[in-house]
Amino acid sequence: MSDITIRGLTKYFGDRLVLDRVDLDVDKHEVVCLIGASGSGKSTLLRCINRLVEPDHGQITLGGLSITDPRFGRTGLQQRVGIVFQSYNLFPHLSVLENLTLAPLKVQKMARPQAKARAHEVLSLFSMERFTAAYPEQLSGGQQQRVAIARALMTQPDVLLLDEVTAALDPELVGEVLKIIHDLKQRGLTMVIVTHEMGFARDVADRVCFLSEGRIVEEDAPARLFSAPQHPATQTFLSRLIASGRV
Amino acid sequence: MVAGRSRPAGNYGLNVHRPIADQTDRGGLRPGTTSIRPAPEGPPPPPRKRSFDWRAAFVPGLISSASIIIVFGGLYWLITSAEQWPRIKAQFFNLDHMIAAAPRVAQGFLTNLQVWLIALACIGVWALVLAVLRSLRGPVFAPLRLLVVLYIDIFRGLPALLLVILFGFGIPALNIPGLPNSGLFWGGVAMVLSYSAYVAEIYRSGIDAVHEGQRAAARSLGLSEWQTLIYAILPQALRNVLPALMNIVVALQKDVALLSVIGVRDAVREAQIYTATTFNYSALVVAALLFLLATVPMARLADWVNRRDRARRLQMAD
């Protein structure tokens, strides 16, 4: 059974249609990459999955539970779905450790020692355990993004959403973050990734979805989608990227 | 330094110490060839540490103190040699009168300090409540938001002096049983209401300045709207506006003197009373000195808070 099921998801920002009857299934342990031009609705789709954006129409179920049902508590949802943003969005007034333990302490009401232990455990996965006492602004972009991913993993979510997590990084720092995402894939985490790194999408994704004007116009295994795109919009998008040397 | 940001060691490829032999080919690279530059012998030495330079250490200080002495000495001479100076001195700087007035003016100034501290605490809390109400989202809170906007428009638009008179004389005159009757209390209330309108706007600017992504991050971690405000937004907002708040603290310290118009025996009132009986204004100068004694250190403290805040923002980890 698939982990995430999206049916007929539609979202307007004012009069602008951003998502147009999107259907998407993500299986357990599957990594799906969403690609497409800016403004094609990738990030909105991602944010609908953890209800940072409330869709206007359509259903999303997560492990069989409908999360678009208003009766479904937000807290339960946030515990199952972690999200990482392009601009890290770490809390600058809190140390790395406090950033990680805030939600477990305040939302899940975890005991402090357990929360700390869990934080150390997650940070050591990313070889960031030296920085527990540091503040975000003292870290490099890549380190901040690793902390942000660690923070999203604190509650052991079933699904991790990654929203252009390398777009704000200096080129030489992209690698360390991508490596972590690779590791997470090896651990069997279900992930939905919005990315502009086509090389990475080809490498890590089990399936790539190309969005255009709020619709998924083509989805396929990366090898096929990148080498033999079927839809004209995909072809145009990819040939433009190739022309600009991005693929 | 952070590993990722450290600059590369070495001479940045500027082959300063390129061996002479390598420079013989003055024609540069022929097209189609690549150049593998030989490793430089080593980077140039660091700049020599300067020995302590007495001249550099003392001459600027000497010049500035000399110019200060000349300018202020000149001013002093100019003022004291004026024809009217003895009269001015007798009227405003009469030492006997100053000493005679000092105890009561100081007594009054204690009232100022008390009102100042209590009002500060009330303003800090009440303004925060206003700012938070105003920043609440969701249609349910629309009437609250509107009320706060009205409140701020009204109390920011009215002179504090008018409010002090209105509350300090008006409400005690109503003689409502159960309400305090003292002008001091109601004058203080007027100050709190008036200042809170300003401070609420300062808080709100701080809340607005917190990046939207912070709210998204907090919400996506499962924090409730309320928890998001308490743990993520407000700490950053307060830090943003601390310098502006310090200014308000200093301003309030002086404005407490407005209460003197409704008969509160603060420093200014006491000095006026003394002046009224002696026709000498030295008592008011005593009050002025007391205010300066309190506000100038506050202003320096504000500067220090500002500097420390900047330093913290620029701080880099080891």
In short:
The complex is a heterodimer of chains A (247) and B (318). Chain A has 247 residues and is α/β, with parallel strands linked by helices. Chain A has nine helices and ten strands.
Number of helices of chain A: 9
CATH hierarchy: architecture of the largest domain in chain B: Orthogonal Bundle
Strand fraction of chain A equals 25-35%
Would you tell me which CATH topology of chain A applies?
Rossmann fold
**Could you give the count of β-strands of chain B?**
0
Name the CATH superfamily classification of chain A: P-loop containing nucleotide triphosphate hydrolases
Structure in words:
- The complex is a heterodimer of chains A (247) and B (318).
- Chain A has 247 residues and is α/β, with parallel strands linked by helices.
- Chain A has one domain: P-loop containing nucleotide triphosphate hydrolases (Rossmann fold), CATH 3.40.50.300.
- Chain A contains nine helices and ten strands.
- Chain A has helices at 42-49, 74-80, 96-106, 112-125, 141-153, 171-186, 198-204, 222-227, 232-243; strands spanning 2-13, 16-27, 31-35, 57-62, 65-66, 81-84, 159-163, 190-194, 207-212, 215-220.
- Chain A has a six-stranded mixed β-sheet with strand order 6-7-8-3-9-10, sandwiched between helices. Chain A has a four-stranded antiparallel β-sheet with strand order 2-1-4-5, with helices on one face.
- In chain A, a hairpin with a 2-residue loop joins strand 9 and strand 10.
- Chain A is globular and about 55 Å long.
- Chain A starts with a strand and ends with a helix.
- Chain B is mostly helical.
- Chain B folds into two domains: 54-82; 94-314, MetI-like (MetI-like fold, Orthogonal Bundle).
- Helix content of chain B is 69%, strand content 0%.
- Chain B is flat, with a radius of gyration of 32 Å.
- Classes of the chains: A alpha/beta (247), B mainly alpha (318).
- The A-B interface holds A 50, 52, 74-75, 77-79, 82-83, 85, 87, 89-93, 102-103, 106-108, 134-135, 137-143, 151-152, 155, 170, 172-173 and B 2-5, 211, 213-214, 216-224, 227, 231-232, 235-236, 239, 313, 315-317.
